[in-house]
Design goal:
By secondary structure, the protein is an all-alpha fold. It has twelve helices and no strands.
Length: 259
Amino acid sequence: MFTQAILLSILASLLSIEWMNGHFGLSRPLITGMLTGLVLGDITQGITVGATLQLIFMGINGVGAAVPPDQTIGTLIATAFAILSGEGAEIALTLAIPVAVAAQALDIFGRTFCTVFIHMADKFAEKGEYRKLEMIHYAGILVQFVRVSIIVFPAIYFGVDAVESFIAMVPESVLRGLEVSGQMLPAVGFGMLMTMLDIPYLFPFYFIGFALATFGGFSTVGVTMVAVCIALIMDYFKCNRSTTESGPSNDDLDALMED
């Protein structure tokens, strides 16, 4: 069990890093379940559980700086327990969401802790110490490994009771603080995005979408449909204006008549 716990901790860390850097789909529940089954020697059960959890986590995606429930860790631990206990997908469905939410809290804490490295990186960049700047990036990866191993290793080695005991040890004030931080991160992420775009004339469209979603009750699909319609209308009038402006002027017509 010790070797399996180590291997699954490494696998979970690599998949979590893939989720945060590139996101090629390897960290999705279906692939995560298959890889977990491969490590534990039951790839068929891993694919079965992964496909089931894929349906549950299908709509979860991080937008901006938002931190969604950690579907990778939730799937990996749920699949592992389904295989090790022999109870199949039933126990996986019970464990996946609670574990994903617990991993989400640790993810927020890890991201918050990494802000220390950002300030260190700024100082190294100003001094031109690029080797140290490179090491800062590796330090961030190390934090990710530790963050994942804290929940995956004891869950596999000691069982799910260890995970629940660890969560129970965390003070309520800390959990509440992480929850509030998680709710603030989406606003910070969109603020950073608008700062990087630096296109003031597009700001009204952002607030139109915000108003539709917040006060109008529009879903993401609804806001997207409105945005597409606005884009098509703007493109239509822009093309007509360009055609009108590029047409023959009165001066050109007068010159033809004189000839």
